[in-house]
Amino acid sequence: MNLKDLYIDFFVRHGHKQIPSAPVVPENDPSVLFNTAGMQPLIPYLMGQPHPYGTRLCDYQKCIRTNDLEEVGDTTHHTFFEMLGNWSLGDYFKQESIEWSYQFLTNDLKIPASRLAVTVFAGNDIIPFDTESYEKWLSLGIPESRIAKTVEDNFWIAGESGPCGPDTEIFYFRSDEEIPETFDPEDNRWVEIWNNVFMQYHKDVNGVVTELPNKNVDTGMGVERTTAILEGVKDNYESSIWKDVINLISEISNVPYDGEYKRSMRIIADHMRTAVFISADPSGIKPSNTDQGYILRRLIRRAIRHAKNLNIDINSDWENRIATLLLDKYKTYYKELDDNYQIVLEVLKKEKEKFNKTLEKGLREFEKAVRNKDAIDDITAFHLYDTYGFPIELTIELANERGISVDEEGFEKKFKEHQELSRTASAGKFKGGLAGDGEIETKYHTATHLLNAALKEVVGPDVHQKGSNITSERMRFDFSCDHKLTEEEKSRTEELVNKWIEEGLEVHVEEMKKEEALSSGAECMFIEKYPDIVTVYTIGDNISKELCGGPHVQNTKELGHFKIKKEEASSAGVRRIKAILE
Fold it and tell me: Rounded to whole angstroms, how far apart are CA atoms 359 and 363?
């Protein structure tokens, strides 16, 4: 049985309800481009909103992290990964959570207890040592020498204030050497495989910590890492998750998974899998130069460059063969891969063809840059990387063929400056965490519902929301539309939203069965992510009726004045409106 199935089966047996995996692109969450952790889609429920499935939940969640993109190519880093999680929303706490984690690892997965060790929170001036977790581990047979007490690594808080608490991490000894009696968390032969976070306290903006009335448990375990451990391989790409993909790349390139080829093969396998999941997402992401589309473009182009390193014929159907394998491998677990099968193949093919042209231009630019020169300076090397997607390795290789040197040190300096600027610029995008919605964000949530309803009246009933992004300064709304809005259409849309605001319409909220909600005319963006019981927000006398996680205002009069600032293309067949509330 697959690890995902074993995990879900275990926690369902222990009273948990399986919830569907959320899309990789979060809905109405401007703090991140993608869902970066299993707990992220559950933020409203960890903050206190009742979950329709109850208080014990489990799932496998699709996650994407691209802040370590340059690390991909080693044995452990991935941009896309699957996270197994189970949650208690004010139900059980440390005793059950720790016991079930231990049972699943040692009984169901048959991991010898002798290869396990744990960390617990040592305590500080404000919050005491986590005695309960420590004693629970002892009672399960983990010896004192295998329990390490730490402070920084065993306390969790999202940001500066909010829910927080100790966590306990479980480690596996991933080495053929003799297992040391005493556990040292700094010894990298010990690999973390599970983390149990206990949301026990609340820290306010002044640093005052109080006990939470409802205590939550949030746990997580990575599928890729655990599978590699269970199968006894030290290279994740040699596990069953990757082996068929690597074998196919080896067949296409006619080179073995060995030596100098390994890094390029890993990058192609990883990036193609992530690109497949982003392209299949219900939000309709397409390669572009901004946000999620930029990440998708970068991943596909990086995979193409490494395919070229392996002397794969870039104009062949190599990307189609790899994507088809991945789609067939995962579609049983994630329905959107089946629904958007052909869309994924088309996205990859178009971007490949587009980059092939850029690659040729880059080669011509290189020839111009090196004419009558005996060296390539840092500015030229970085220009080739930044504008034409040339990795420094390709520039060096081309330069070596002509007996020309490259200022590698200068390039690295410019590259690091570029990375730092990128990190600074996107810090908010990748931050994530239990960030609550403020008053203005709540208003914008409701405004997106009114805008959606107005566009249906002005443009036509076939308009559907394709995505949204809300900050405290503005709202962004993507919608299906085959033409640029005329000035009259924009004006009428704006007037209609403001008319409904001025009418002071009540916003009603109710819970009902998903089928009942849909048959009543309620609209939603990602139907497959919703559970059997859903929350429906209705504005006025059915002016707007949508499935949504909220939050929303109680009356439209609270919104102020709505103003469209910009209307533009987002991707093929999708338009984007940026608007503000004054």
Answer: 6
